[in-house]
């Protein structure tokens, strides 16, 4: 219980710190180097996301395999996985390094970069790529804290290094002429510190894991096993990348670097919505898997429908807050930018949740019943369609960045209605109509919450962050009470509270 409490406190503290620092850094960087330069920070990280697709297949299941062998005290086998992943990652680094050098050298031929910041952006990309190669080429030190349940050794250093990164960036921006590549430099310094901490954790927590120096300990059979287990994760990631991961690159190439910076700002709140959705999703997923494994189909379906109602009840509250309060947020957060554009972008990118907030839980059915291949192919097909539609709309309409922000939402919503809902319910051998009716009810519930929230908002004046926190707290609390006590039934309320307690105990 003591260890669990420490892990939980450290996790919450790290999350809060990251959010606060994240909110501070963007307007600070914009104020010192401009919105165009700030957009290139997100774009550079997106390039790393593209490169990480090759790494995902090998690494996404590595900790699982290493942990199983280590816990079973088969240290020889655990080290075989540990070393094989290391050498496999080095091969990936060797393959990507020449291409990265060429990309940085001829960056202006790939993306639109203003001449006055071209050198700075190239240096920024160099630091971001360096971080990728250092992190990929290092041994899998993260698995030690996972194996030993010492997650506090991850959360606490992450919190401290986040603060250090902020202070470092503030110092160099103050002492020297502001440059966009200072952000990459700060990330590199923090990464080196993080790697040292990871090495120390491995040496002290799992000393049985080591990189063999006297010989190359690597098995192509093991690498093939890891890639085979993680390949569909890569395919799904490619589909997700095509759905929204190319948006900044497309915006830069076909519209402009300024618009790319605006789009990067507009994506912040939707990204938090997505993270919140995944957190709720992951809380219910294990229970569904257990029910399926035990052959209790009736309980599986019952719990699935219950989880659906709980997810929609929880997700509709922040969605309502985003619709009603995002204008005030952007005015305070980035006063130099047009808040109306940012609000429209954020709302457009989140509107899919107004329909699918509850039925999102059906996405776990494919992994539960081991039918992930077709689902992954559907995701990548939808991603390709989304990318093609964006190109068409950019060249034939005046929608601009709104086309980039909205097309992926529409395509993903179409995928949910045409494939996910009917196919997932087919695998479970149940009727899909209740799920479609639930989506309609979600829209009605969201409309009602927004009406209540707007009435509350009209009673207050928001001039500063204290006003915003007060009003947002009242709006969020009121909407949550409405959903928990009027939207959810007695059983769902009980399940929600029990799930929260179990989640806390596990952490």
Care to describe what's here?
The protein has 507 residues and is mainly α. It folds into two domains: 231 residues, no CATH class; 176 residues, no CATH class. The protein contains 21 helices and no strands. The longest helix has 37 residues. The protein is globular, with a radius of gyration of 24 Å. The model has no long low-confidence stretch (mean pLDDT 81).
Q: Name the overall outline.
A: globular
Which residues form runs of ≥5 with pLDDT under 50? none
Average per-residue pLDDT, rounded, comes to: 81
Number of helices: 21
User: Biggest sheet, in brief?
Assistant: none
Structural class: mainly alpha
Count the beta strands.
0
Number of domains: 2
Strand content: under 5%
Indicate the percent of residues in helices.
Answer: over 70%
What is the N-to-C order of secondary-structure elements (H for helix, E for strand)? HHHHHHHHHHHHHHHHHHHHH
CA-CA gap between termini: 9 Å
Query: How big is the Rg?
Result: 24 Å
